[in-house]
Amino acid sequence: MDNLRLPRAGRCKWAEGDAGNYTFPCNNRIDAGSSYCTDHRALVYIPPEERRRNRAAVPALKKIAA
Ligand SMILES: [Zn+2]
Fold first, then answer.
1. Is the pTM higher than 0.70?
2. DSSP string, 9-21
3. Cα–Cα distance measured from residue 30 to residue 36, given in angstroms and rounded to the nearest whole number
4. CB atoms near residue 30 (< 10 Å)
5. Ligand 1 center–CA 57 separation, angstroms
């Protein structure tokens, strides 16, 4: 069976592997309009507070570099 090599409709599209050699090991069901299960969505999408922290860190790094 070669099912791991294609994302399935209605299933998590979490991919692992290198370019051209992906597998889709996660078989969790997803909501309509989502690409990932809740577990993997948490890994893919950065929470707003995390994003704010990263954005705040960037100007500080630039200042140090300049
Ligand atoms: Zn998943």
1. no
2. TTB----BSSTT-
3. 6
4. 20
5. 30
Which residues form the domain of 11? 3-65
Partners of 23 in beta bridges: 16
Report how many domains make up the chain.
Answer: 1
Over its length of 66 residues, how does the chain's per-residue pLDDT go in tens digits?
Answer: 455 677 788 999 999 998 888 899 999 999 888 899 999 998 887 777 877 877 766 555 556 555
Distance 32 CA to ligand 1 centre (A): 14
Distance CA 24, CA 5 (A): 6
Plot region of 16 (φ>0 → left; ψ -120 to 50 → alpha; else → beta): beta
